[in-house]
Each structure stands twice: as C-alpha cells, then as structure tokens.
Amino acid sequence: MTKIFLERSVKRAILFLLPVALSFSLWASPAGAMTQEQKILNEAWGIVNRAYVDNSFNHQNWWFVRQGLMKKSPKNREETYEALEEMLASLEDPYTRLMRPDRYRSLQVDTSGELTGVGLQIVQDPETKEIIVVSPLEGSPAEAAGIASGDRVVKIDDFSTTELSLEDAATKMRGKPGTSVVLSVMKEDGDRPEDIELVREVISINPVYAFLDESPDSIPIGYIRLAQFSGNATEEVAHAIDSLEREGARGYILDLRNNPGGLLQAGIEIARLWLDYGTVVYTVNRQSVLGSFDAYGPAMTEAPLVVLVNKGSASASEILAGALQDNDRALLVGERTFGKGLIQSLFELSDGSGLAVTVAKYETPNHTDINKLGIMPDKVVELEPITRAQVATEADKQYQAAVELLSDRLVLAANS
C-alpha cells in the first residue's frame, strides 16, 4: 500500500508511482529461501530502490548496500529494524525513515483531528541529529510552555536526541494523557538548554478558525486561520469563505503561521478555492519528469487576499503560499517560511511497520525550489512574542501590517 503525504500526512492520495528498477526476487539466502527477517529487509530495500527521489542514493552503490544487509542476517525483528535504520541513515535524508508498527498506526490517526502527546511538529537536523521544532500545535502543552519554531530539543527526559531517530523522539513525546515528559530545549537565541516539564494531553485539532473583522476603517475583512492541512481542511476553509462572503467580507487574510503542513492534496485543493486558473505546484521525480497540479476555477471569491506566514509555515503551507504569491493572487506578509520542498510517500511493510520515503521535490509555479530556503514574503514583519489570545488583535504586528496592506488595496480598488 502506498500513500502520498507531506510531513505528517497519511491519508489516501494518488500522485505517481515510480517503476520497479529491480525485482524483489533477487534476494535469497544461501539455502535458497529467505527468512522472515530477510524478507522484510528485502522488501524495504526494494521500495527505496524503486521510489527514492535521488537515483544516486546519496552517491553510493545501492546494490552494495543490499549486500551489506544480507551479511547482517538479523536474528529478530529489533535487529531487522536497526539494520533498516542504518540503511536509511546512509541516505542522509531526515524525511526518509522507518516507522515501527506502533508509530505507523499512530500516523494513521494524525490527521483525524485528535492527537495525544505534547503537540510538537518536529524534524531532525541531518548533521547534528538534534530535533528542531517546526511549530507547536495550537492549544497544545508545548505551545502553552512557550516552545517555538526553530527551538532545538536536545534531550527528552534523560535521552540525548542525537542518539534517537526522528520516530523514536516523536514516540517518547507521545504517551498517555496526564503523564509527563521533560524536554531540554535550546531557544534560538539562548546559550544553554532549559528543562521544560510538559504534561501530555489529548489535543483536539480544529483546522480552521474564522471571523469577520469590521474594525479597520469600517472595511469588513474576513480572517481565516488554518492550523494544518488535515483531511477536512478544504471543506472547512470553503465553508469559512462562503460564510464570510455572506457576511459582507470585502477582503481576506489567510493565516498560515505555524502551520507545519499536512496532506498534499489539501494544499492543492485550498489553492484552487482562491484561483481562477494557473499552476498550483510542480513536482519533479527522480527521472526529472515534471508534473503539475493546476487550478481550473472558478475561485470562490475575487476579493483581495493577504497571506500571513512565518518560519513555522512549512510544507503544504509553502505550496499554498507559493501558489498564491506566484499567481499574483495574494501578497505575503510576515517572515521567511521554513523551507521544506520535498514530498514523501508512505509505504506499509508486510509486518505492519512503514517506510516514509522522499519520492519527489516540488517547485512553486515560478519554478522556485524552496527546500532549505523557504519563501520570502512580499512584506517582512518580525513578530514579537504574543499569546494565542493576542493573535489577530492590535498586539499582533504581523496581522496589523496585513490589515493595513489589505485596506490600502481595497481603497485603491474603490477609487480606480
């Protein structure tokens, strides 16, 4: 089973399947039959062999890697997993990784609207192996504790994150509601880690929050905050636009700050809500074959649009922001985005574990590769720390800059 996703998505979606380069039947034990552990190793090696975006496999002979796996002859499942993790680590790609069965199952519900844990979206630095925060989930214990995008988690309880895989780190932060975990966090501007004790809880995820702001010069502005690209995100954004249109919104602010991404298809479909026509995103696979997803219209509204982004806006957020910016549909306000321009596919292995494999990269409609670079907003506005209750208020300088920019555009349109 194969599923396409961005960052943490596991919903069904069809993007493309790459041809099989080598048959899985090539692996055999000296006795002519594979053990169960060898079958899993062979299965995983073959998936990467046919699907991984870099056909040089980080400038190594992938067949020799397979021969190295054969020599290990793991005696149990844990040894098999350790061998697979070593194999995947050789790619030096933090997004291509093994998920043990429990972690794989937990990913199945990550986009269902409810999570249990501390509420952090994370990636792993391929060089230092430290865990980097993409963003805290809204309303989560991590957000309440002040953990922010760009912070580094250097320890989880007594375990150094440099000794953990990304999945192991995520698993250690999950747990039963009411239990606690201590994260040692290095702030971006800090000189030493700070120990923060968090109590795990069930986190309900409502992807969309919207209201009509009638305060700026009596010009009604529709505000829509999208927290993640979950399975129901497109429907909820469409409902918000429809309601705000009926309430008389003359312009819109779409808030993608600290949105770490989610389903690829959701990002594409939400872009189509705002675009009459044009390319939403290009994808490039390992054969350098260029594909595209386009908007065919009509858009739900022609009203002016400003999009709020920051360094916690990643993956599908960057696809949406890039599509709206490059098609001249919206102006971007805030800070440079996170810079994740890779697409993963999730493959289920026969024992119930899974592989997340980078199968393609994406480019914005202007053919900009934003991986590790991010998207620069049209108007850069640094944000001083605010509470969640202060978002989209006078204390929110980025929001106020967006309101001013949108109001100016509406006034110019009215006078033209």
How is the secondary structure organized here?
Blueprint: E1 2-5, H1 36-51, H2 62-72, H3 77-89, E2 97-99, H4 101-108, E3 114-117, E4 120-124, E5 131-136, H5 141-144, E6 152-156, E7 159-160, H6 166-173, E8 180-186, E9 194-199, E10 201-204, E11 208-213, E12 221-226, H7 233-247, E13 251-255, H8 264-274, E14 278-284, E15 290-295, E16 305-309, H9 316-326, E17 330-334, E18 342-348, E19 354-363, E20 379-380, H10 397-415
Parallel strand pairs: 12-13, 13-16, 16-17, 17-20
Antiparallel strand pairs: 1-18, 2-19, 3-10, 4-5, 5-6, 6-7, 6-8, 8-9, 11-12, 14-15, 14-19, 18-19
Detailed description of the structure:
The chain has 416 residues and is an alpha+beta fold. It has three domains: 2-102, Transcription Regulator spoIIAA, CATH 3.30.750; 114-204, Pdz3 Domain (Roll); 208-415, 2-enoyl-CoA Hydratase, Chain A, domain 1 (Alpha-Beta Complex). It has helices at 36-51, 62-72, 77-89, 101-108, 141-144, 166-173, 233-247, 264-274, 316-326, 397-415; strands spanning 2-5, 97-99, 114-117, 120-124, 131-136, 152-156, 159-160, 180-186, 194-199, 201-204, 208-213, 221-226, 251-255, 278-284, 290-295, 305-309, 330-334, 342-348, 354-363, 379-380. Strands 1, 2, 14, 15, 18 and 19 form a six-stranded antiparallel β-sheet that branches. The termini are far apart.
